Amino acid sequence: MLKITFPDGKQKEYESGITGFDIATDISLSLSKAAIAMTVNGHQKDLADPINEDSLVNIITLKDDSGLEIMRHTITAQVLARAIKNIYPEAKLAIGPTIENGFYYDVLLKNSISSDDLSSIENEMKKIVKEGHSINKKIKNKNDAIKLFEELNEPYKIKIINDSFQENDFQIYQQGETNFFDLCKGPHLPSFKFIGEFKLTKVSGAYWRGDSKNEMLQRIYGTAWRNKKELDSYLSMLEEAEKRDHRKIGKEMGLFHFQDDAPGSVFWHSKGWVIFNKLVDYMRNRQENAGYTEISTPTVLDRSLWEKSGHWEKFQDNMYLAKTSDEKVFALKPMNCPGGIQIYNNSLRSYRDLPLRIAEFGKVFRFEPSGALHGLMRVREFTQDDAHIYCLKEQMEEECKKVINLTLDIYKDFGFENVKIKFSDRPAKRIGDDNTWDFLEKSLLSSLKKLNLEFDVNKGEGAFYGPKVEFVLVDAIGREWQCGTLQVDLNLPPRLGANFIDKDGSKKHPVMLHRAFFGSLERFIGILIENYAGRLPNWLAPIQVAIATINDNCEEYSKTIGDYLSKDGIKFKLDFRNEKLNYKIRDLSLEKIPYIVVIGEKEISDKTVSLRSFPENKLVSMQLNEFLKKIKNSCRIE
User: Fold this and answer.
1) Which helix (H) or strand (E) element contains residue 560?
2) Confidence band (pLDDT; 50, 70, 90) for 638?
3) Of 6, 344, 456, 461, which residue is least crowded by CB atoms under 10 Å?
4) For residues 29 and 167, which has the higher predicted lDDT (pLDDT)?
5) Does domain 66-239 have CATH number 2.160.20.60?
6) pLDDT tens sequence across 373-412
7) Contact at 8 Å (CB) between 84 and 55?
């Protein structure tokens, strides 16, 4: 007999070899009908897998997020893959993982698939689902697995098997008694009857294993949901997201552009640079008030420092390198931390100096594959609002509380009230002993609990050098963006010799906290543009007021108004173009300017303005002083 422990802590004894389906049936008939997979001691397993030792077991259904993920995995690895083979028998299957909100499959084909072909593939998928097959798993050793895929003429599956370190336990999934087999780590749905609604969305190119030296494959993307209502809701969101695309809006507003001469790097236009610097000024003020000092470290650093920090070993392939005439190798920094520690190390530090909060707006450089680049959201050159806090162990909890409070307060200033918090604890591969991890995790968790904050726990998702907290913003159309981080670092202080003199005169390493609010300023601007569909909060708008004249006689009065606005720090634009008023207003509206002032003969004689503000979109007459007061108040941080 073996002992099964359930998530609620209850325990029950079962015969060795019992399956997840047996356990679900024992619990209730309804659960047996809804069960699709299980977790055994934290690892996802197929429902039919036998359990042979005392275990913590949780039954997964489609109501669970993990259940939805398993359904998507089954659709791509089984349904989409087989549909492709049915329509294109010569296709060679590569990989088919899940991604956020969906899935994709990479295939090698002689002919190009276009978006016009997706409907026929989708129809074939629906036919396959209607067959209602059960999904069966076979376990094969390396030789047998290779032999199977040699018979099926699937070279990519053979490459995956050959590159694996394991010799046995290769999982092969088969649909009923069909001749379709796929190599997959699983788990999968027990049968197709659990599949909900799906839709193929696009086709793109992708190199095998993401390496441009390898052959180009075709990648077919799709999304899948529990029911039609969820699918329709998601597709509506995608439609709205397309309208809010920061690349399109950024071009309309004249904020930035990209070009092939500098792939993954932003050409900031004057208005975009205004937004960028407003973010820097805002953050600089918040950090100064919170007790941070600001530094700046070199962009180009010698290879030896990256070797000491460990980045050379782990990130060399993503670093930009340069060799000088004297054969020295330098790298553009991919991270700010090693440089920041040099400033900490430049002075003798005492326990009395701690906590020490050091911030930097550091530009970093990381090589990303060209296919991964996406406007401001994924670039090769970006600025981080990094800070590193050096503190004593007994100060850590309080410092974490301060960071968390400040993070949430900052997000409110940008209109993000819905913020999800995720705590990630120790991974299997890590440095440091369990006692140290116990202390760090306890301190970080305690800071969240004492602030009465709700958070999700990501078991085993911490970095190898320490636990972390992530802050995920939910935008106006329900999308999630991971931005802020609070990360404990056990690695860099000892590697780079960061010490302080303790009360007893001994040298010790400080606790080091990495902290970022925006993450990447470029990406945060992209998120803001899409969240507000370009109509940024008044205080952040690059141009807050546009003054449009009806004729040449109105220019002097308009300039006078501009002088008043300038004294109050308001960004304005004068539009003296010889165009019709309606054309001017329509043109200025595309720039997403919050306030448009119209000046004509009547406004001059009455010392008034006609104001058009979003979203009212109608002209309202008001006295000049009243207008100036309104603008000054509305362009403050709310």
Assistant:
1) helix 555-567
2) low
3) 456
4) 29
5) no
6) 899 999 999 999 999 999 999 999 999 999 999 999 999 9
7) no
Per-residue exposure over 370-392, b if at least 16 CB sit within 10 Å of its own CB, e if not: eeeeebbbbbbbbbbbbbbbbbe
Q: Which long-range contacts (CB under 8 A, 24 or more apart) does 559-564 make?
A: 561/597, 561/599, 561/609, 561/624, 564/624, 564/628
Q: What is the mean pLDDT of residues 108-137?
A: 94
- Kindly report the CATH class assigned to 1-60: alpha beta
Q: What is the distance between the terminal CA atoms of the chain, rounded to a whole angstrom?
A: 64
Active site residues: 337, 366, 384, 386, 388, 468, 514
Res 630: pLDDT:
94
User: Is the confidence at residue 329, as pLDDT, over 70?
Assistant: yes
Per-chain mean pLDDT for the chain: 94
- CATH class of residue range 254-530: alpha beta
Q: How far apart are CA 638 and CA 633, in angstroms?
A: 9
Q: Residue 243: left (phi > 0), alpha (psi -120 to 50), or beta?
A: alpha
CA distances to 247, 410, 532 from 477, in Å? 17, 20, 10
Question: What is the pLDDT at residue 450?
Answer: 96
* Whether the Cβ atoms of residue 473 and residue 466 lie closer than 8 Å to each other: no
Residue 638: burial class (beta carbons within 10 Å; 0-12, 13-18, 19+) = exposed
What length does the chain have?
Answer: 638
Least trusted range by pLDDT, from 128-132, 322-326, 444-448:
322-326
What does the domain layout of the chain look like in residue ranges? Answer: 1-60, 66-239, 254-530, 543-633
| Amino acid, single-letter form, for residue 199 | K
The answer to whether 147 touches 203, Cβ cutoff 8 Å, is no
- Could you say which architecture CATH assigns to the domain 543-633? 3-Layer(aba) Sandwich (3.40)
